[in-house]
Amino acid sequence: MDPDIEIIRDHVRNVLNGSGSHGLDHIERVTALCEQIGREEHADMAILIPAALLHDIARPLEKEQGLPHEQEGARMAEEFLRSIQYDARCIPAIAAAIRTHRYRSKERPAAPEAQILSDADKLDALGAIGIARTFVRAGEHGGSIQDGIDHFHDKLLKLPDLMYTGTARRIARERHAFLVRFLAILEEELSIQQG
Fold it and tell me: Which domains does the chain have, with CATH numbers?
C-alpha cells in the first residue's frame, strides 16, 4: 500500500469522523469506484485516488459556514498535499478534480481523472446505496419519505445521462434500473395508503 495514500486516508478519517450521507463510508465507496473505473479507463491513479479520498473534505465547513465544499475542498486538499510533500506535478490536477466533481458545479471536469471522480460520486447516489443515502439525507434535513422521492425525481433519475466514461455508464444503467423498480413499488405502496 502506498504510504502517501495511507497518510491521506488517515487525514480524511480525522476530518470526516462522522457518518451520514456524505460521511467516511461514502468516501470509501467513491474511492473503490474510482479504483475500478480508473483501472478500466487507464487513469493516473496518483491523481485519481487522492482526489477521491479528499473530494468531500470540506463538507463539514459547508455545513457550518455555507462554503461551497468543492471550492474549499480543492483549496484544503492542495494545502494538505503540499504539507506532506505529495508529488507536486499531481496536485493541480487533484485540486481540479475536486473542484469539478459536484453535480451542481458550473465548472465541468475536463481531465479523465476529474471525469472519473465525478462519475464515481454520482454512481454512489444510484442503486441500493443511493436509495439508502437518499433517506439518510432526508432524515439529516428533517425530511420525510416524500422528500426522498422528490430527490429521486429532481436529481437521481437524471444521473445516468450525465456520466462521462463508458465504464460508469455501464454501472449506472444497472443501478438506475434498480432505483426505478424500487421507486415504482414505493410510490404504489404510498398511493394505496393515500387512496
Answer: 3-194 (1.10.3210.10)
